[in-house]
Design brief:
Blueprint lengths: L1 H5 L6 E6 L6 H14 L4 E7 L12 H4 L9 E7 L11 H11 L3 E5 L16 E6 L6 H4 L2 H6 L2 E4 L7 H11 L12 E3 L8 H13 L3 H30 L3 H10 L4 H16 L4
Parallel strand pairs: 1-4, 1-5, 2-3, 2-4, 5-6, 6-7
Helix pairs in contact: 2-8
Amino acid sequence: MLAAVYGRTGKAHVVGVTGPPGAGKSTLVNALIGEHRRAGLSVAVVAVDPSSPYGGGAILGDRIRMSDHALDDEVFVRSVASRGQLGGLSSATARVVDVLDGFGFNSVIVETVGAGQAEISIMHLAQTVIFVAAPGFGDETQAVKAGVLEIADIFVLNKADHPMAKKADRSLHEALPASSGGGWRQPIISTVAIDNTGVSELFAKVREHWAQLDPSECARAATVRAQQQLAAAVAELASAYVSEEPDFESLAKQVLSGQLSLKSAAEEAFHVIASRTRPVE
């Protein structure tokens, strides 16, 4: 199915929405769905929810916040469990996005797990990345350090009716001046997503960023993404073999007893796996 889909991808505008837990990402995405529909655009949402580190399950509660559009045929919302994947996404997210793109949605919004500054996988998937911050959730400058400053195309200060909003807005503006480049200056949009304040301005900036993207750059990014998906698929196959072979308990005991170094044990395990996966001549 995916082989058939790939020939039809590359037309949807993929928008990533990331930021710390509690910033109001899901409420903001719900408001953005409304803006898309008012503009006559179909939109799909892939909302990644954190999985339990013990049972592996997820509440998948993001769909509850987006129920306003449940009966709209031009809107599709899918929650995906992170299944312990780092980077704010799940291993299946890119494939889900490809299916929705191939299906013909104008936009696909990907909401990440509440992410820290090191969780920047969304930059490899989305053409436009929105970072959502909120006042009262710690040091806003700390929240947009390093990686996030470099990957975000638009910053949103949500819950702008909060008493600490002015301080947070000042902190964000002080953090950003040196980060603009490539002809696009990262805007900071203040919103109150729960009552749609500022959301139309945010939507306008999202469409503006999409309009100024270089098609050749988008094509290169799509190739890089395909390479990463291929590498991830190879890693999944390797992981399946590792889970079956070899006898890690025995090797671990030899490492603990001093009979083998960790590197030697790893090399032995690798050779066992390689011998099992080599095609028969």
